[in-house]
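question for whoever is on the cluster today: can someone run the full assembly for these? two chains, 180 residues total. i dont have access anymore since they changed the login thing
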Amino acid sequence: MKCLLIYDIPDDRARGKIADFCLDYGLDRLQYSAFMGDLSPNHQEELMLKIERRLGKAAGRIDLFAICQEDWRKRLSLSQGMSPQGENHE
Amino acid sequence: MKCLLIYDIPDDRARGKIADFCLDYGLDRLQYSAFMGDLSPNHQEELMLKIERRLGKAAGRIDLFAICQEDWRKRLSLSQGMSPQGENHE
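^ ran it for u. tokens below:
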């Protein structure tokens, strides 16, 4: 099931660690703070729990959407001059 | 139709202007770089065209998803200590 995970985590170290979790779960970077990929419902829950534990009391917002094929197909995208690995932010 | 627009725009001025476009179209800020709200297919196209024109040659990536009620209902979210207006970033 195609998933989109987006986050807003001000703390650099927590954000970096949580990006690693996303990559560990096989997600690909769509934007600097957005990851996409296939996750079963169980893995969605598991990843969110790992993120919650790592975040601890730090501020953050994370949203994970499972998006059906039909909605995924209809997305509108515009991309220019960006590195998918997020180097624009370093 | 419930929509989610996410962007990654390194240039501060372009990003600010494009955030204003999203608010003008009645979207609400979900995260610092993510907006949600109801947009017809026509308004989705129109907003993306306005964004494309404003972005010009600046680097950026924008993705707009129309998400069905069922998928929207099943999203997983975690939020703590965050201002929805993005003040954590100022």
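summary bc i know u wont read the tokens: The longest strand of chain A covers residues 2-8. Chain A has one domain: 2-64.
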